[in-house]
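Justification of computing resources. Each target in the renewal requires a structure prediction run like the one illustrated here; the chain below, 114 residues long, is used simply to show the kind of job we budget for.
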Amino acid sequence: MTDLATQPGVIPYVDNHDGPRRLLTIDISLHHHAKVFAPLASIDGRQYVVSWGSVTFEIPADRNVHVSVYLQTNYSGNSSVATPFASIVLAPYPGPVRLATQFTNAEGTLLPVG
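Resulting C-alpha cells:
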C-alpha cells in the first residue's frame, strides 16, 4: 500500500501497478432522481459502489486511466428509466486531479474542476 492509500477516505488502487500514483477526487452531484439511483464509480474497469458527494481514489500517474461513473437503478415502475453514465480517459500526469459529474437524462460528462 502506498502513502496515498493510507490517507483516510482514499480508495486504494488494487490492480497491479508499480509506478507512481496520484489522487483522483470525483464530485458526484445529486441527481434529480436520486431516490431511485445509486452512484457507482469505475476505475480501469473495477467498480465501486460509492455515495453522493466527493469520493477519492488512488490511481496510476504514469499511464492512461479509464474513469466512469454511472447511476444504477432498481426502478420497476411502469415507465422506463435510463441509466445515466459518464466516462473519461485521464492522460498521465503527476499531480492530483478533481472531476465533477454532470448528468442530463442518459448522458453525462466528467469535467475537470479547477
